[in-house]
């Protein structure tokens, strides 16, 4: 029996992993650390997320069985006292720690909140793992601990190449804590998580989806100002002030779920795994797909921006933290993933069609009452909107 202490169950990856593993195996149980909200207890939040995840994964009938294998401790990784937590009766018999909780803030960190959650939180969990004398320590990091590296990022040889933000630095240093813990470990490093392969849907949109939301609102504002139908093409006259890349690693959430669940069940060999796939998109592909779905013109990508207009300044203010991920020259090595799971699991790619599908799915799911967006989402790019 594996008894797993897990952080981050209310997050995108944590909930997907718990549901996937408990669908496959009857010999596992989880004790999960979760925060309460202003209106819900930690247990209520966990139950709600697991039911949502089961519904998303097409197995709502399994929610009760899965939840019967999940216990919840109310708490926070930052405030956790490892010595006191180790005394909690629910943790008796825990032999695996799976640390997934993190703050994915890609911007500045003036109060140090992101660093505290990602580094100090990891320090607390590693100390707890030592006190519990667990046999395995699993950690969900990020592929972007590679920071400003140019070239190939090797899975088992992370180096400090400088970082784009405190998030990357905090995750790099947290990974070093895991590596130096003395506990056998597996480290999983996803890239930019996006919608699943089958239909492009995602339960909790992050990162890239902020661009889709921003451009949708900007088009709405521009069309209203010009007095033209929102479904018609419109020239935005905006520029993304960054260098186009050939290596933008969008990774579908179902691949992340499938890969991490399979890797978790492999022997723990002090390895790291790039959960990124090996079929990156290009910045130009993303530009073409977004502009095609939204019927946008006058959207450019050029780092040499002489005199940005107000819309460009607004975009840089709200989206500038994402720019490094659309100009990165990192190539993520897949040697460990391929060795552990074989070539077949890597046999996928979004391509232009998959990218278009995930963009449409986002607008369909998250703007159901915006009629013009619904029309665009339902109309192929090469067809006129009726």
Question: How are the secondary structure elements laid out?
Answer:
Blueprint: E1 2-7, H1 12-24, E2 28-34, H2 42-56, H3 63-67, E3 70-74, H4 82-85, E4 96-99, H5 113-132, E5 136-140, E6 151-153, H6 166-179, E7 185-190, E8 192-194, H7 208-226, E9 234-240, E10 250-252, H8 253-264, E11 271-275, H9 283-294, E12 296-301, H10 310-319, E13 330-332, H11 335-341, H12 351-366, H13 371-378
Parallel strand pairs: 1-2, 1-4, 2-3, 4-5, 5-7, 6-13, 7-11, 8-10, 9-12
Helix pairs in contact: 1-2, 1-8, 5-6, 7-10, 9-12, 12-13
Please explain how this structure is put together.
- The mean pLDDT is 95.
- This protein has 2 domains: 189 residues, Rossmann fold (3-Layer(aba) Sandwich), CATH 3.40.50; 120 residues, no CATH class.
- It is of the alpha/beta class.
- The termini are far apart.
- It is built from 13 helices and 13 strands.
- Helix 1 links the parallel strand 1 and strand 2.
- The relative contact order is 0.13.
- The strands form 4 sheets. The chain has a 7-stranded parallel beta sheet, with helices on both faces. Strands 6-13 form a two-stranded parallel ribbon.
């Amino acid at each position: 029996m594996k008894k797993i202490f897990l952080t981050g169950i209310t997050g995108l990856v944590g909930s997907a992993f718990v549901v996937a593993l408990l669908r496959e195996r009857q010999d596992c149980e989880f004790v999960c650390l979760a925060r309460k909200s202003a209106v819900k207890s930690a247990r209520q939040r966990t139950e709600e997320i697991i039911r949502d995840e089961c519904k998303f994964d097409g197995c709502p009938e399994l929610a009760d069985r899965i939840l019967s294998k999940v216990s919840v401790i109310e708490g926070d990784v930052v405030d956790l006292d490892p010595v006191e937590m180790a005394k909690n009766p629910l943790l008796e018999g825990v032999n695996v720690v799976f640390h997934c909780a993190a703050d994915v803030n890609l911007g500045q960190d003036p109060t140090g909140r992101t660093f505290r959650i990602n580094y100090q939180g990891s320090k607390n969990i590693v100390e707890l793992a030592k006190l519990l004398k667990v046999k395995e320590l699993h950690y969900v990091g990020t592929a972007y601990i590679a920071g400003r590296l140019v070239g190939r990022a090797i899975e088992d040889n992370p180096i400090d190449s400088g970082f784009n933000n405190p998030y990357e630095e905090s995750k790099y240093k947290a990974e070093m804590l895991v590596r130096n813990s003395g506990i056998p470990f597996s480290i999983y490093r996803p890239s930019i998580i996006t919608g699943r392969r089958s239909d492009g849907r995602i339960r909790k949109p992050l990162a890239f989806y902020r661009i889709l939301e921003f451009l949708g609102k900007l088009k709405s504002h521009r069309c209203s100002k010009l007095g033209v139908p929102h479904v018609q093409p419109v020239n935005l006259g905006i520029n993304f002030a960054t260098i186009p890349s050939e290596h933008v690693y969008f990774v579908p959430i179902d691949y992340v779920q499938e890969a991490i669940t399979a890797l978790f069940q492999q022997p723990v060999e002090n390895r790291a795994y790039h959960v990124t796939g090996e079929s990156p998109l290009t910045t130009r592909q993303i530009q073409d797909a977004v502009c095609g779905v939204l019927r946008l013109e006058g959207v450019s990508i050029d780092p040499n921006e002489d005199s940005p207009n107000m819309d460009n300044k607004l975009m840089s203010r709200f989206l500038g933290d994402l720019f490094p991920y659309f100009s990165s020259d990192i190539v993520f090595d897949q040697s460990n993933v391929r060795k552990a799971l074989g070539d077949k699991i890597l046999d996928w790619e979004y391509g232009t069609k998959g990218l278009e599908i995930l963009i449409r799915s986002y607008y369909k799911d998250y703007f159901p009452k915006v009629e013009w967006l619904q029309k665009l989402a339902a109309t192929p790019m090469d067809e006129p909107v009726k």
